[in-house]
Write a structure and sequence with these properties.
This protein is an alpha+beta fold. It is built from 4 helices and 6 strands. A 6-stranded mixed beta sheet has the order 1-2-3-6-5-4. The protein has a single domain, classed as STM4215-like (2-Layer Sandwich).
Length: 197
């Protein structure tokens, strides 16, 4: 399982995937940035923003055992989370904004699985955030109208066309060893004395 640095590493890796595959002749000035709510008040001129708007416990695999650490001790269970991103294209014209959105959605659909080596390459400053056998799956997941309005609350009245994605099963491992006790062999009961009232 990954360390706590997995959350920023996933966002940076998604942006790197888009930036590396960007068709430069058409989108020469495009920038690729992680956004927080305040960035929507003064957005970039052209490019793609990725806004992490929700993190939830992953419901697919909650009872994974902890892994063995370097000293052979089993760690506490990992915390599996799903990361919800809002991908927003920015451009001076609606047509270019729509083209950016269509291209970015196609790229993410073509590369739904991010490998540990790719994720670790963009984890800063750590480069060993994910174990070699780990992957993160990125899936398009539309928002309801109400959820979309809630996400865009900081950016009113300039709501932009966007697509929402979820990065599934990002496991954040614990560094704390889980104390293991031996099996119970005997049971000693000490019944209390009944007193009268």
């Amino acid at each position: 399982m990954a360390t706590y640095a997995a959350i920023p590493a996933v966002g940076q890796a998604l942006l790197a995937l888009l930036e590396q595959s960007c068709p430069k002749p058409e989108f020469e000035g495009a920038k690729f940035r992680l956004y927080q709510a305040s960035d929507f008040k003064a957005p970039m001129d052209e490019g793609i923003s990725l806004f992490l708007f929700r993190v939830t416990p992953s419901t697919t695999r909650r009872n994974l055992p902890g892994r063995l650490d370097s000293q052979g001790r089993r760690t506490r269970r990992p915390l599996p989370v799903d990361l919800y991103y809002l991908l927003t294209p920015w451009a001076k014209s609606a047509a270019k904004q729509h083209r950016l959105l269509g291209w970015a959605m196609r790229q993410l659909e073509d590369t739904p699985t991010l490998t540990a080596s790719f994720l670790n390459h963009y984890g800063t400053p750590e480069t060993d955030t994910f174990l070699p056998d780990e992957t993160v799956t990125v899936v398009y997941e539309p928002l309801s109208i109400q959820d979309m309005l809630n996400v865009w609350e900081p950016g009113k009245p300039n709501i932009q066309v966007s697509a929402s994605y979820v990065a599934r099963m990002v496991g954040i491992e614990s560094a704390i060893a889980d104390e293991e006790a031996g099996p119970v062999q005997t049971r000693v009961l000490s019944p209390g004395k009944v007193t009268e009232r």
